[in-house]
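Final report, closing paragraph on structural work. Over the funding period we assembled a curated collection of sequence-structure pairs, and we close with a single example.
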Amino acid sequence: MKNILCYGDSNTFGWDPEESRRPDRDQRWPGVLEKELGADYHVIEEGLPGRTTVFYDPVMNLISGLDYLYPCLYSHQPLDMIIIMLGTNDLKYLFNAAPFDVFQGLERVVKTALYFESDLSDARPQLFLVSPARIIAPKAQFTDMFRGAEEKSLGLAAQVKALALKYGALYLNAADIVEPSPADGIHFNIASHRILGKRVAEAARDYFGKK
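Its predicted structure, as stored:
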């Protein structure tokens, strides 16, 4: 059994803005990933709405991705792959962060994942970085929350790709294959979850097939 951890924000947790609900497990991209890979794979969802790389959000009172990652890795060991998709919430107006700031925050997350030593396995899990989809015309409460983020989100892919190359991680740019729903400009609809889950599954299947 291969264990895969999906670590992200609300687009890993799953929120469909078109129906104002959390999609069912098999409709969210980690669930699609597990179904595509089959019975020999166990996919663990660790999505938290509002999760950043390293920034503390005093409004949502949520810890950063870095703060929670070590206990998360420890509780789900042993792991064969860690998929990380973070960076969208770093671009909130509150944090005044540029794409390079996201790079630096994500690098700290990456190092924690890479240097984690499992009590149950001598092998280190393969790291898989997914650059988030673009932010496109945020609406409703997200208009001010993500003011100025639409343009900044264009620079995320290059930063995440650079990290993947630097640390030997697998890489996928979600912005190449999916866009957020026009309903809010931030979150995936169910169709995008399905597309992303299948593309991540292709990459994971290819990696494990070559081992």
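The radius of gyration is 16 Å. The chain has one domain: 2-210. We thank the funder for supporting this effort.
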